[in-house]
Amino acid sequence: MSRGKKANELGRVSRRTDDIDNTERWYWQEKKVPEYVKFMKQNYPPDFKYEDFGPQFTARFFNASQWADLLQASGAKYMVLTTKHHEGFTLWGSKYSWNWNAVDEGPKRDLVKELEVAIKNRTDLHFGLYYSLFEWFNPLFLEDKLSSFHKQQFPVSKMLPELYWLVNNYQPEVLWADGDGGAPDSYWNSTGFLAWLYNESPVRDTVVTNDRWAAGSICKHGGYYTCNDRYNPGHTLPHKWENCMTIDKVSWGYRRNAGICDYFTIEELVKQLVETVSCGGNLLMNIGPTQDGTISPIFEERLRQMGTWLSVNGEAIYGTHTWRSSNDTITSDVWYTSKPTENLVYALFLKWPTSGLLFLGQPKATWGSTKVKLLGHGQPLNWTSLEQTGIVVKLPQLTTSQLPCKWGWALALTHVI
Q: Sorted alphabetically, which Pfam families does this protein's record hold (predicted)?
């Protein structure tokens, strides 16, 4: 895998949760929000502190092999595990995290190592790790902040040692930084660490990084851009980018009080994927595990549905490039990808026309060479040219049960310009 991420990759990210209704991981930061205060008063003792959630995060049913098998079934090509978020709790143990980690508290297990072994032994996914640079209430970081980041106690004693530990011990192929804390790259020594990562580290020939390494670096520097959460520009960008979004429409964690309408449908997720890849991006689709280490059925269903869709239409996603036009000018919800070396253009359409005729305004046929095929359907399709530009494809007459998939389809167009 090159340092610039390929356009063929679909990813999954899982984030740890504290399992508080509607508060997710932000409770400690936003504990003065009235609805959070009310919930805590109704459900926890008066002297209950955030750190008391540590023992309740048990991961007792966490099974790395089951996670790996599910991620493989989803059709993902890489995954990213949140190893530490802004409150500082790590999913591995080391001398740099004192006892605020999953080995000394709660699960009493190195969850990062378990998942690394399972992913690398059971799947063909690229193993990735998310790491928050700063920590909301770490006294060393707060003291550094008061000095306008002239002091560097926190990165020297905590952040950098942990990052070196993660890379040396788990050898991720994707390193997803986040949480710059408003500090410049000189405070974090981002350039120094990245120079080591790309030139001396054990993953120097395979690792890929994002753009969140310091204040002002997002959407400007990095192997690929994230720009902001749920980023979807709707047009092709000149630099590789990623749409990091959530299946839960509002939360990055697990919510016990979430309703079915709070989750994206598989049709909506397929649309996100198609739009993202056609514009040159990757889709990193977040799931929020529970405090006992399980993936809830709604998330499992969405992952397996995506895998089912990709088993038919993956040819139009994996290994593809952008085309001269990302979407169609005549028919809405038609998006294009391409494989230039094979003279292939893919038209991914999200609505099956009731007339049975799909009007495509962008492809121009080359007489005698152009062929059209519906992925998952064996027979070539008939087509005719439009007067000015484009083609009209006659889709096969199929019953619902005969359709190659349910939530979007792809045409392979050979020798169009």
A: Alpha_L_fucos (PF01120), Fucosidase_C (PF16757)
User: 219 with 353, same domain?
Assistant: no
Number of helices followed by number of strands (H, E) in the chain: 11, 14
Which pLDDT value is given to residue 7?
39
Residues 189, 136 within the same domain: yes
User: Residue 323's closest CA among 346, 290, 357?
Assistant: 346
pLDDT at 389: 86
Contact 79, 176 (CB under 8 A): no
Nearest to 375 by CA among 405, 398, 401, 402: 405
- Answer for the pair 6, 242: CB distance below 8 angstroms, yes or no: no
Residues 21 and 3: their CA atoms lie apart, in Å, by: 39
Same domain, 25 and 87: yes
Burial-class residue 364 by CB neighbours within 10 Å (0-12, 13-18, 19+).
Answer: middle
Q: Extract the runs of DSSP E, i.e. beta strands, from 216-259.
A: 241-246
Whether residue 153 sits in one domain with residue 21: yes
- Residue 36's pLDDT is 83
CATH at residue 154? 3.20.20.80
Looking at the structure, tell me whether residues 161 and 223 fall in a common domain: yes
pLDDT of residue 12: 55
Cα–Cα distance for residue pair 128/12, rounded to 1 Å? 10
Reduced to 3 states (helix: H, G, I; strand: E, B; else coil), residue 90 is strand
Domain of 214 in residue numbering reads as 10-316
Model pTM?
Answer: 0.93
CATH number at residue 400: 2.60.40.1180
Q: Strand, helix or coil at 56?
A: helix
As averages over each run of 10 residues, the pLDDT of the chain (417 residues) reads: 42 47 53 82 90 94 98 98 96 94 97 98 98 96 98 98 98 98 98 98 98 97 96 94 97 93 98 98 97 97 98 98 96 97 98 97 92 96 91 96 96 97
Q: Are 11 and 283 in contact (CB under 8 A)?
A: yes
pLDDT, residue 35, reads: 84
